[in-house]
Amino acid sequence: MSCRQPTRRKFLQTAAAVASVPYVITSKALGQGDVPPASDRIVMGGIGIGNMGASDQGAFLGRPDVQYVAVSDVRESVRKTAKERADQHYKNGDCQTYNDFRELLARDDIDAVHVATPDHWHAIMVIEACRHGKDVYCQKPETLTLREGPLMIDAARRYARVVSGGSQRVLEDYKELVGRCWGGELGEIKSINVNVGPLSQLCNLPAETTPPDIDWEMWLGPAAWAPYNAARCSGNFATDGGSWRSYVDYSGGGMTDWGAHHFGGATFAVDVRELQPVEIEFHNDPEGKHLTFKYANGILLHHNRPKTENLVVEGTPGEKRPAKPVPTYKGEGGIYGDFIHCVKTREKPFRDIELAVNTVAVSHLGTIAYQLQRSLKWDPAAQHFPGDEEANRFLDRARREPWQL
């Protein structure tokens, strides 16, 4: 469970809120033109609607096979803007707003949700959504700790949910490289290099007056208590300070944020996306610190290898191997269409949660090696560092009540 059972009072308040939601029906409910009838549309809601969440909302709103009915965000102004965006699209006033994501998840009429909150919320929200029978499109990086990944995979499988990670770049940015590797022109693949960073940092920003627009306690959620500061919770895309993406309590910095893209593209290109490394070698050379991730099949993934550009592949010059078909999106409309198609068919999406977890696990393993300044052994099946008590302390972190996993 991702949080304790609500009190009876809280349950009644939530039930009352859900009961007050109007029955969703629009002028197009029976279908017209290219719009399918309401009974054939996926009913969706969004959790975390600032920045990337707004982009996700726009993508799903633009699909005729989706009916978008609810948004949840801890900022009143963001909720209002997201509601207006949906209402203007449908030319009605039906989109409901929630400060507490649990009230949105309690609605029986919602089939699927997208999640674009800060990273420290992802695991809790995805698991809760699965428990409530919702399919989930979750923005990257999907996890904040190594322990969260298997719990998210287990929830998806246990409740038979479609859960997709949100990195569109894995296929769209690196398609040419993937095609060359899978097409066999580089011969037997030996290694690939990824240049990405920085690691997240401690946040010691001073306290500022909390604006009335934000529920600060809810924004923090499972993270350690800290005073409000606008830069602490900014959703801008910087990873080197001045945004939640920069700070340890909420994100893994560029190592996970851009790492989800670059490691995702790299592991896809060299075909280890279904695996996790078994060893992480730490190098402290005069030219700089860097890592080598070793996979059980012999593939090497280098991180920040000196004098090596990003996504450089070492193959077998002069040799070719038979081409194999490259996995791609299902349905139409990119990664969003892939998710909606799989919600309908119950297939696994292109960025199935297990593949997404394997990608971000590389980022977490690398971060731990850099923090400890040494090499590590990793057991993917047992999900721990064998015989390494010091490293195993980094598998997870404490969470504030009642937000436990």
Short description:
InterPro entries: Gfo/Idh/MocA-like_OxRdtase_N (IPR000683), Gfo/Idh/MocA_oxidrdct_glycsds (IPR050463), Gfo/Idh/MocA_OxRdtase_bact_C (IPR043906), NAD(P)-bd_dom_sf (IPR036291), TAT_signal (IPR006311). The chain has helices at 8-19, 52-61, 76-90, 101-105, 122-131, 148-158, 169-172, 175-182, 216-220, 254-257, 259-269, 334-345, 353-372, 389-392, and strands spanning 42-47, 66-72, 96-98, 112-115, 135-138, 163-165, 191-194, 279-285, 288-294, 300-303, 313-314, 376-377.
What is the number of beta strands?
A: 12
Q: Assess the beta-strand content as a share of residues.
A: 5-15%
Q: How much helical structure, as a percent, in the residues?
A: 25-40%
Strand order of the largest sheet: 3-2-1-4-5-6
CA-to-CA gap between the ends? 6 Å
Question: CATH class of the largest domain, anyone?
Answer: Alpha Beta
CATH architecture assignment of the largest domain? 2-Layer Sandwich
* C-alpha Rg (nearest Å): 22 Å
Continuous helix count? 14
CATH topology of the largest domain: Dihydrodipicolinate Reductase, domain 2
Q: Spans of 5+ residues with little confidence (pLDDT < 50)?
A: 1-12, 14-30
Structural class: alpha/beta
Major pleated sheet: 6 strands, parallel
The oligomerization state is single chain
Summarize model confidence as the mean pLDDT. 92
Q: What gross morphology would you assign?
A: globular
Task: Give an account of the 3D structure.
By secondary structure, this protein is an alpha/beta fold. The chain has 2 domains: 8-167, NAD(P)-binding Rossmann-like Domain (Rossmann fold, 3-Layer(aba) Sandwich), CATH 3.40.50; 168-324 and 353-400, 2-Layer Sandwich (Dihydrodipicolinate Reductase, domain 2). The chain has 14 helices and 12 strands. The chain has a 6-stranded parallel sheet with strand order 3-2-1-4-5-6, sandwiched between helices. A hairpin with a 2-residue loop joins strand 8 and strand 9 (288-294). Helix 2 (52-61) packs parallel to helix 3 (76-90) and helix 8 packs parallel to helix 11. The longest helix has 20 residues, at 353-372. The termini are close together. It comes from Lacipirellula limnantheis. Its EC number is 1.-.-.-. Residues 204-404 form the Gfo/Idh/MocA-like oxidoreductase bacterial type C-terminal domain. Residues 47-164 form the Gfo/Idh/MocA-like oxidoreductase N-terminal domain. InterPro entries: Gfo/Idh/MocA-like_OxRdtase_N (IPR000683), Gfo/Idh/MocA_oxidrdct_glycsds (IPR050463), Gfo/Idh/MocA_OxRdtase_bact_C (IPR043906), NAD(P)-bd_dom_sf (IPR036291), TAT_signal (IPR006311).
